[in-house]
Write a structure and sequence with these properties.
By secondary structure, the chain is mostly helical. The protein has one domain (about 5-95, about 155-255). The chain contains nine helices and two strands; from the N terminus they run αααααααββαα. It has a two-stranded antiparallel sheet with strand order 1-2. The N and C termini lie close together (about 5 Å).
């Protein structure tokens, strides 16, 4: 059994190995093929690289004893990894989901532009609106080419997690959601009882007294990153080393046995 005071150190070493294995499994150049169209490249690939950026950022925050802030980013990583898994599993429905996601994003961008003008962030949005209309035209061409009748959409995080076998992560996702919105639970790792009925609030979490907090957030993020990689690899035809899954198993054992 690992010493509790050392669990974060052991977990951190494994997280670094997982990060390096993820990066080494990612090709430096992606090319289109008959099975990979431009919209898949425009949506799925940036989603994957966002996951990589979020995972790296989670590790930086954990290194600075900021598990609450790391969990906020890990929440986004979890949600994005579910979307990639859903695209991987969608089969012939993938084009409809991509189309629906892009179309909805364009409408939201238009809404943001109108708000920017209304709130006097910018004076003129003519060119930006014209660009959105041009993209909508290109998207309509994509829809016709792929014979898309009804546009699809991504499932909610809860439905996707249950459908894709990741329901055990939902509680952590809900906890992180509360932290995003600054509810009382967001202070749970920093609040300590002091004296008789008193409490102290710390600016960061001391890993020597709460090593499993840092380790648990790291595990949550690493699982999501691994799922994101495997889903993206399936979509684009990459090869992922089997060593990555072994590292995840080793990470889980390290935390369970501590």
């Amino acid at each position: 059994m690992a010493e509790e005071s050392n669990v974060w150190k052991d977990v951190r070493e494994l997280l670094e190995q997982i990060k390096e294995k993820v990066l080494s499994s990612t090709p430096s150049e992606i090319r289109t093929s008959e099975s990979i169209d431009n919209l898949t490249l425009q949506i799925a690939l940036p989603m994957y690289w966002r996951c990589v950026g979020l995972f790296r950022s989670v590790l930086i925050l954990l290194d600075n004893n900021q598990p609450e802030e790391a969990l906020i980013l890990a929440r986004s990583l979890f949600a994005e990894s579910l979307r990639l898994m859903e695209l991987d599993a969608a089969g012939t429905e993938r084009a409809g989901i991509l189309y629906g996601h892009y179309a909805q994003s364009l409408e939201r961008n238009k809404w943001l532009l109108h708000k920017a003008k209304r709130w006097e962030v910018v004076d003129d949005i003519t060119n930006q609106l014209r660009s959105i209309e041009n993209q909508k035209g290109e998207l309509e061409t994509y829809r016709k080419r792929h014979g898309i009748g009804k546009s699809g959409k991504f499932s909610s995080e809860e439905n996707a997690a249950i459908k894709l076998g990741r329901q055990k992560n939902l509680w952590t996702f809900e906890l992180s959601h509360r932290m995003v919105h600054g509810e009382l639970v967001s202070q749970m790792f920093r609040r300590r009882p002091v004296g008789s009925g008193g409490h102290a609030i710390y600016s960061y979490t001391n890993y020597t007294s709460d090593p499993k907090i840092l380790a648990g957030v790291g595990e949550f993020a690493a699982e999501s990153m691994t799922h994101a990689l495997h889903a993206t690899a399936n979509i684009f035809g990459w090869t992922v080393s089997s060593e990555l899954q072994e590292l995840i198993k080793k990470l889980k054992r390290c935390i369970t046995d501590s």
